[in-house]
Design a protein that fits this description.
The structure holds two protein chains of two kinds. Chain A is mostly helical. Helices cover about 75% and strands about 0% of the residues of chain A. In chain B, strand 2 and strand 3 (about 30-40) form a beta hairpin. The chains are: A mainly alpha, B alpha/beta.
C-alpha cells in the first residue's frame, strides 16, 4: 500500500505542475490576444481556463481521497495540504487569465491610448518570470528559489503603479473605456503574480513544516535555509527524475468527458453562449 | 542524539525526570541514553516499532521490571525529585503512585466492588461507608458506574472486555495515583470501548500524568499532547529515544528522518 501511495503522491505532484504549466501557457496566450486584438483566440483561452478549472478540481478530489484513505502524516500530509492550497490558487489565477481574455473581447476594435498595451506586455513578461520561478521551486523543492519570489514580484507592483500615472495623463479625446479595460487586465496580472508568490509561501511549510512566509526568510543564508528543512518523505525527496519515473509507472487513464453529474455543476464547461451572456468580470 | 521539539521541562523536584537512562535484561542492553521530562497532567504517547523498548521504558517508571530476574539500570529516574531506584524506595508504594493498565484487562476473579476496594483496603481503609464512597467515586471517574451500579457483586470477569478494562482503570484510580501508565490499553478491546477509554483518558489528564504505549498512530495523534518515538536501529544494539515533543508538531513535521519514515509507514 505504501508503494502505491508513493506513486499516487508522485502522480499528484506531477499533475499539479502540469496544470501550473498549462496556466502559464494560457496566460501567454491571453496577453497575446489582447495585444493583437484576437477575439477568436480569446474565446479559446477562456475555454482552456475552464478546462484548467476542471482538471484542478479533479486533482483536489484525488488529494482529499488520499487524506481519507491513507491517514497521511508528516511530509505526506504536508504535501497533500500543499497540493490542495496550490490548487485553490491555480483556480484563482485561472479566473484572472479568463478575465484578461474577456478584456480582449471587449477592448478589440478600440484604440487603446498612451502606450498602455506596450506597458501591459512588459508587465506580463515580469509576471511570467514569477510563474516560471514558482514552478521551478516546486519541481526542485528549492527554498532558495522560492525566497527570490517576493523580489521578482516587486517590479510587477512598481510597473502596475505606472498604469495609474499613464491613466491620469490621458486626454479627453482618448478612449477612456479601452484604457480602463487594459487597466483591469494589468490588475489581473498583478494579482496572478501575488497568487504565485503565495504558493511560494506554502512551499515553506511543505519543506520546513514551519508556518513562515517567504518574507520571513529573506535575511537567511542558503545554508540556514537548508538547515530549516524538515525530514522528507520519498514523495518529496526522490527528485524530479524519480517523480517522473514513478509517475510513468502509473497506467495512463483516459480522462472522463466534462462532468455532467448534478453534484458538480461548476465542473462542467459553460458553452460559449452562456459565457457570452456573462458581461461582468469574475472576481 | 534525540531531537526535542518543544519538549516539556518540569519544575525542579516535580513530575518525572529522566536523564541518561539505560536498561539491561541480563546481558542484553535494551535501552540507552534516554533523557526526558514527562509532561505533568498531560497525555504522552510512546510510539515505535515492536522491540524498540517503549514498553520496557514504561515499566521502568513503576519498577515493574524489578520482577524480572537479572534486570538492571543506570542513569537517573526521578519522581517529584526522588530517585525511583534509590535504596529504601518501596516498589509497592511507588506502584500506588504510578498505576498501570495492561493490554489485556486483568480484573481479579472477585466482585466488581472487591476489585475496586482491594487497593484502599491494603492501604488500611476499613470503614464500609468509606469504601463504598471510594468504589462509587472510582467507578464514576472510570465512566463505568452507570453500567454496573446495580450489580456491584457481579464477578469482574463477567463484564465485557471494554468494561473490564475500565474496571481495571477504576481499580487504579481508587488508590489515587499521580501517574497512570497504559501499555497498549486499547489493543484488545472493541472500537466502542476504545472510544470510551480515550474519552476517559482525556477526562483524567487534567489531574494526572498519563503515559500510553500504542501501536495505533491515529490514537497517538488523537489523544496525546506529547509524543516520544523510540527505535532500535540495529539488531543487537540498544534502542533509544529518537524524537520527543509536541504531538501535533511531530506528526506534521518530524525533525528526524527516522521518525518521518516510521510515522509515514515506511517501516515498522
Amino acid at each position: 500500500m505504501r508503494e502505491q501511495f508513493d506513486k499516487e503522491l508522485a502522480a499528484l505532484r506531477q499533475d499539479l505542475v502540469k496544470i501550473y504549466a498549462e496556466l502559464d501557457l494560457q496566460l501567454h496566450e491571453a496577453v497575446e490576444t489582447l495585444i493583437h486584438e484576437d477575439k477568436e483566440k480569446a474565446k479559446k483561452v477562456r475555454r482552456a481556463t475552464h478546462k484548467i478549472d476542471q482538471e484542478s478540481m479533479k486533482l483536489e478530489e484525488r488529494a482529499y481521497n488520499l487524506i481519507v484513505l491513507q491517514n497521511p502524516y508528516a511530509s505526506d500530509l504536508r504535501l497533500l495540504q500543499f497540493i490542495i492550497y496550490v490548487n485553490f490558487n491555480i483556480q484563482r489565477m485561472s479566473n484572472h487569465v479568463r478575465n484578461i481574455a474577456k478584456t480582449t473581447e471587449r477592448a478589440a476594435g478600440h484604440k487603446v491610448p498612451g502606450g498602455m498595451l506596450e506597458l501591459l506586455a512588459s508587465l506580463a513578461h515580469l509576471v511570467y518570470r514569477v510563474l516560471g520561478e514558482t514552478v521551478r521551486a516546486i519541481v526542485e523543492n528549492d527554498l532558495n528559489t522560492a525566497t527570490n519570489l517576493p523580489e521578482l514580484d516587486e517590479p510587477v507592483d512598481e510597473l502596475y503603479r505606472t498604469f495609474f500615472k499613464t491613466f491620469s495623463k490621458l486626454k479627453t479625446e482618448d478612449d477612456i473605456e479601452a484604457a480602463s479595460r487594459v487597466m483591469m487586465a494589468a490588475r489581473m496580472l498583478e494579482r496572478i503574480s501575488d497568487n504565485s508568490v503565495e504558493v511560494g509561501d506554502r512551499l515553506v511549510f511543505l519543506l520546513t513544516g514551519r508556518r513562515a512566509t517567504l518574507d520571513d526568510l529573506q535575511e537567511l543564508e542558503p545554508e540556514e535555509l537548508d538547515d530549516m528543512q524538515a525530514a522528507q518523505g520519498l514523495a518529496l525527496s526522490m527528485g524530479q527524475k524519480e517523480v517522473v519515473r514513478a509517475a510513468n509507472q502509473i497506467p495512463e487513464v483516459e480522462l472522463a468527458p466534462p462532468a455532467s453529474t448534478p453534484q458538480a455543476p461548476a465542473a462542467s464547461a459553460p458553452t460559449d453562449d452562456e459565457d457570452d451572456d456573462d458581461d461582468d468580470y469574475d472576481d | 542524539m534525540t531531537a526535542y521539539r518543544d519538549a516539556p521541562q518540569n519544575e525542579p523536584k516535580q513530575g518525572i525526570h529522566v536523564k541518561d537512562f539505560d536498561f539491561w535484561y541480563g546481558e542484553f542492553h535494551a535501552l540507552t541514553g534516554v533523557t526526558l521530562d514527562l509532561a505533568q497532567n498531560k497525555i504522552t504517547s510512546f510510539i515505535g516499532p515492536s522491540g524498540c523498548g517503549k514498553s520496557t521504558f514504561l515499566r521502568c517508571i513503576n519498577r515493574m521490571n524489578d520482577l524480572i530476574d537479572g534486570t538492571r539500570n543506570a542513569g537517573l529516574m526521578e519522581l517529584d525529585g526522588n530517585d525511583i531506584y534509590a535504596e529504601g524506595v518501596d516498589p509497592v508504594d511507588l506502584r500506588r503512585r504510578v498505576g498501570m493498565i495492561f493490554q489485556q484487562p486483568n480484573p481479579f476473579p472477585k466482585s466488581i466492588y472487591e476489585n475496586v476496594a482491594f487497593g484502599p483496603r491494603l492501604q488500611g481503609v476499613t470503614a464500609k461507608s468509606d469504601l463504598d464512597a471510594i468504589v462509587e467515586e472510582s467507578l464514576k471517574r472510570a465512566n463505568l458506574w452507570k453500567e454496573v451500579s446495580n450489580q456491584l457483586n457481579k464477578n469482574g470477569l463477567a463484564l465485557s472486555g471494554g468494561q473490564q478494562q475500565r474496571l481495571c482503570i477504576a481499580r487504579v484510580l481508587a488508590v489515587q495515583p499521580d501517574v497512570l501508565l497504559m501499555d497498549e490499553p486499547c489493543s484488545a478491546i472493541d472500537p466502542t470501548s476504545v472510544q470510551k477509554v480515550e474519552d476517559l483518558m482525556a477526562e483524567l489528564a487534567p489531574e494526572m500524568t498519563i503515559i500510553i504505549v500504542t501501536h495505533n498512530m491515529q490514537q497517538a495523534a488523537r489523544i496525546s499532547d506529547y509524543m516520544a518515538f523510540f527505535l532500535q536501529e540495529h539488531a543487537g544494539e540498544p534502542a533509544t529515544l529518537i524524537e520527543y515533543g509536541v504531538t501535533s508538531e511531530i506528526f506534521s513535521a518530524p525533525q528526524d528522518q527516522r521518525t518521518e519514515d516510521y510515522i509515514t509507514g515506511r517501516f515498522g
